[in-house]
Amino acid sequence: xxxxxxxxxxxxxxxxxxxxxxxxxxxxxxxxxxxxxxxxxxxxxxxxxxxxxxxxxxxxxxxxxxxxxxxxxxxxxxxxxxxxxxxxxxxxxxxxxxxxxxxxxxxxxxxxxxxxxxxxxxxxxxxxxxxxxxxxxxxxxxxxxxxxxxxxxxxxxxxxxxxxxxxxxxxxxxxxxxxxxxxxxxxxxxxxxxxxxxxxxxxxxxxxxxxxxxxxxxxxxxxxxxxxxxxxxxxxxxxxxxxxxxxxxxxxxxxxxxxxxxxxxxxxxxxxxxx
Length: 275
Fold this sequence. Notes:
Blueprint: E1 14-18, E2 28-46, E3 52-57, E4 63-66, E5 70-71, E6 75-78, E7 85-100, H1 102-109, E8 121-122, H2 125-136, H3 141-155, H4 164-175, H5 181-186, H6 192-202, H7 207-222, H8 231-237, H9 243-254, H10 258-263, H11 267-272
Antiparallel strand pairs: 1-2, 2-7, 3-6, 3-7, 4-5, 4-7, 6-8
């Protein structure tokens, strides 16, 4: 059972957001620090995003309870997923997150973002454990941002030059809400099958799934919690075929209808989803 319309704000995790500096903004969209110190259990959803997050955890580990039940590791990548994941936190949570452009991150780290049997992407210990250990001894978000920035720029010291997959990903982000996907792909000198194969590796999702997630998050950005749902406006703004299409897509990704989702308190879901 997720948050009701009222919530004890003392039970909310404390989240802080930081803009990346010019030396790392080519990769990172935002940094986030989450602190929670409370024996009470809090459960809510991570709603899929159009980007990915490198997650470092230094306290008690949160537990993924849906679609599988497992503790999340000390460091991992939260990839683009087709549906929301339910997460339970309690005790002392100390988490640092770098939200990144997925096609660039996968290329810089030379890894596939396609989850293999899990809903997170593991990171090689030889590469990330030293970074995690250094961050663990640093207790400020600013210090951890410096450590992550230094790590990435040592790994990729040359100026990053976007490739075709990067450019198509950016084009979908810019046009995906207002333009049909086949019209976007037709502007690119690549076949749809080739693009799907590249996106599964570099993004962890197909272009079609990316557009669906993009539109759901756009709707979330324009609706205030507790507000009446005007489906006619949402269908128009999200460029859905009709109300049934909107509800089906929204429920497929979030696990809830828009009516139910926006009627409850989304404080924890926003923090877990990096909003």
